[in-house]
Amino acid sequence: MKRFGIDIDGTVTSPESLIPHINDFFNLSLSIEDITQYELTEVLNISPQEFGSWFKEAEPNIYKQSPLAEGAKQILDQWKEEHELFFISARRSDLIQLTKEWFDDKDLKYHHIELIGSHNKIATAKKHAVDIFFEDKHDNAVTIHEELDIPVVLFNTPYNQNPVPNGVIRVDNWLEANQWVQNWLK
Asked: Which of 3, 89, 137, 145 could form a cystine bridge with 167, CB 3.0-4.6 A?
């Protein structure tokens, strides 16, 4: 049995989850292809303060409405039988109840959910001794791999296209992630 560390937003949830909310509020018509950087203030050309105050208010609603990434439930349902699923997210810790309700609503099982309120997931991944990590944020994927010397599966998006070292494995979807994991487990 392995312990899987899994990011939530942009990994378990669709990377497009934020876009309709951004488009509505900022009166834009962006698609996922327009989001070429993780730091949205640069993409939207607005101040971090303006974006931050909007996001803090919109965040609970965005998370409630986030659709699952394609294939995520099918693969996570398989894995939960053989492995421990530890979801480690940069979400604020006060959103834990809402997050657990979303998991229940989607009928997604978990062994542990930890919301750390920051993108630095290394200490949490180390504390829980995860064997592999699943992520969509490029620099997180690289630093988790380099610091913990574990494989990190990086879900391909337009905002994470910088080069990756060996040990960070790019996949286009959950089916590809599962294929890689099954080979790794052998």
From this structure: 145
Q: Do 91 and 28 lie in a common domain?
A: no
**Domain, as residue range, for 34:** 19-65
Let me know whether 53 and 97 are in one domain: no
DSSP 159: T
* CA atoms of 171 and 152, how far apart (whole Å): 10
Say if residue 49 is in the same domain as residue 123. no
Q: Order of strands, edge to edge, in the sheet holding 168-171?
A: 112-115, 84-89, 3-6, 132-135, 152-155, 168-171
pLDDT of residue 119: 86
- Write b or e for each residue in 105-139: b if 16 or more Cβ atoms lie within 10 A of its Cβ, otherwise e: eeebebeebbbbeeeebeebbeeeebbbbbbbbbe
Q: Are strands 112-115 and 132-135 parallel, antiparallel or unpaired?
A: unpaired
Question: Over 90: is that where the pLDDT of 17 sits?
Answer: yes
Average pLDDT of every residue of the chain? 97
125-165 pLDDT per residue, tens: 999 999 999 999 999 999 999 999 999 999 999 999 999 99
Q: In whole angstroms, what is the distance from residue 180 CA to residue 137 CA?
A: 19
Residues 144 and 166 in one domain: yes
Q: What's the CA dihedral at 66, 120, 113, 82 to 10 degrees? A: 100
Q: Within this chain, do residues 99 and 149 fall inside the same structural domain, yes or no?
A: yes
